[in-house]
Amino acid sequence: MNAAASDVRLLAAPFDPARELAAFTAAYPEAGGVVSFLGQVRAGDGVEALELRHYEPLTLPAMRALAERVRARWDLDALLVIHRSGVMEPGEPIVLVAAAARHRREAFAAADFAMDHLKSESWFWKREKSAGAWRWIEPREQDFQDIARWE
Amino acid sequence: MGIKLVFLGRIEDVAGAGELTVPFAASIEAVLADLEPELARALREPRVKLAVNGILLRDTDAPVLRHGDEIAFLPPVSGG
User: Fold this and answer.
1) Considering the entire predicted model, what is its pTM?
2) In this predicted complex, what is the ipTM?
């Protein structure tokens, strides 16, 4: 395995998850299994928009460090992590994680671990717009419980 | 050159802006002492982490500041 097999991106503009996943699976035909997770802006509850803010010097370097931890823990052929920043509307993709491995168990676990850590540890601050007003979202207890499963 | 302060998350609302450049002071404590009390209080909350020039500080760190330094105030992250 080499470092080139981690593709970690922080994007300020919308992306097409189906196209990204197609390119990823085509690039690693030797992987017998690819597990992916797509997070999108949840519609409902009167939410008009979601904004994710990041801090340039920390956010992407920490995402890359997380990808290295995942690669060190499971035997993967490749790992894809794409995360949005900026303002998004309901239904828009926020995050795409895909793990490619020779065997599916590794791919499932790696994608699950990567998502739990992205959700609770990555340097993003989130606010929601409803009824025309923006409101900052506080950390969720569930996210801390999710991450504790891996310790 | 002064010191550039960067406010993330809800701290931005307290500060009224995402960034603020303040006159040079040699320590973080001295920078905070010159700010509006309400903002200084929000920045001193134990759950707010600090980074100087993109390097995260540990609780015990008290760096000597230099002209042009950037201090980021990072409240708890709300997840991706």
Assistant:
1) 0.90
2) 0.90
